[in-house]
Design goal:
It contains 9 helices and 6 strands. By secondary structure, the chain is an alpha/beta fold.
Length: 153
Amino acid sequence: MVSSNSHIQALLFDFVGVLLLQRNDYVPDEMVDAVDALAGQVVDDHQFTETVLNDYRLPEPMFYYILTKIVDKYTPFHPLWNLLPELRRRYKLAIINNGTSLTLPLFNAKFGINDKFDAFVSSAVEGTRKPDTQIYLRACERLRVPPERCLFA
């Protein structure tokens, strides 16, 4: 935990693998897992959608159904998730996500992302992904906090 007298003003979190983990009871699904793996590489949502629809020969409604199943794969990492209200009282909070922004409304509906974080920075919207410095700088800009005052977890 960062001390309260530090100069840190914002905490930037990775999404899947830090804040969210795969559910222990998740039953693997070949199509859901394949699309989820692609989703984590997205820097252009339109291209991602077209690729999945064409490569897997999916009708559009099935594509969006798979996105809901991707969201259902995950659960909060409760030891960290439960600290978020306290952390938000002391720091600005942001998520930096390598992945599609198409699932954000679904994750928000399920986990209240917008209520817990000040910004959600998606590689699909930004056109760049971690570890490129630009995506971190954009998160800092959104939070209006200088990079030297941010900590990435």
